[in-house]
Inverse folding.
């Protein structure tokens, strides 16, 4: 089991560029989510999915898009990167919110 | 809106003492409450989950209590060790299909 994998580990973007952060899990989990973590702000939920084809917004969804075409993958798209999106991004998966969440190693994104 | 507060951004204790971390919430009736540990540069790791109808749960040196009347959870680490130094996050979820929301965390430092 690879668990939850995230790519890339590090990324530097220029303002206005777009990119996709990849997240995959091999545990057949239905629930997947994306968080961003900034100093002093804790983990803030961006988007989440309770199963393939179903996504919903979290606390801070603006500027991000997601889709869930398969159970395994949950990519996060930055449409037009802004310096305010500089952060560490974590993907997590589980059987549901009543179960433990498994987190990926994170992607550190810098937008200049 | 829903609010989760983890009292104290930082907690310093001596080795061997009991560390007690607090998680308070408002405008929310969670069905589940979870605690995670996060080390620098890494994703959070699950520690314990407690349900709304449970008062207390234990795992080795860890104990969690959940008081839905006070809207509060306490997380205890007994016989603390320097290796327990980390940031501890509480997270809340409603019934199935809702999102998991995190507090900002408390950074625990255990000195020898």
């Amino acid at each position: 089991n690879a668990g939850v994998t995230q790519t890339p580990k590090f990324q530097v973007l220029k303002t206005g560029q777009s990119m996709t952060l990849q997240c995959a899990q091999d545990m057949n989990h239905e629930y997947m989510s994306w968080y961003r973590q900034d100093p002093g702000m804790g983990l803030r939920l961006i988007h989440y999915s309770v199963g393939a084809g179903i996504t919903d917004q979290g606390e801070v969804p603006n500027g991000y898009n997601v889709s869930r075409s398969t159970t395994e993958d949950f990519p996060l798209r930055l449409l037009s990167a802004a310096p305010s999106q500089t952060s560490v991004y974590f993907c997590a998966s589980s059987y549901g919110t009543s179960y433990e969440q498994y987190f990926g190693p994170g992607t550190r994104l810098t937008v200049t | 809106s829903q609010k989760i507060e983890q009292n104290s951004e930082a907690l310093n204790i001596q080795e061997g003492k009991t560390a007690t971390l607090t998680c308070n919430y408002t405008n929310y009736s969670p069905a589940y409450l979870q605690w995670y540990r996060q080390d620098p540069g890494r994703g959070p790791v699950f520690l314990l989950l407690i349900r709304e109808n449970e008062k207390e749960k234990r795992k080795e040196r860890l104990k969690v209590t959940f008081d839905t009347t006070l809207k509060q959870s306490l997380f205890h680490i007994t016989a603390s060790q320097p290796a327990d130094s980390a940031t501890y996050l509480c997270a809340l979820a409603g019934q199935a299909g809702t999102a998991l929301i995190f507090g900002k965390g408390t950074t625990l430092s255990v000195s020898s």
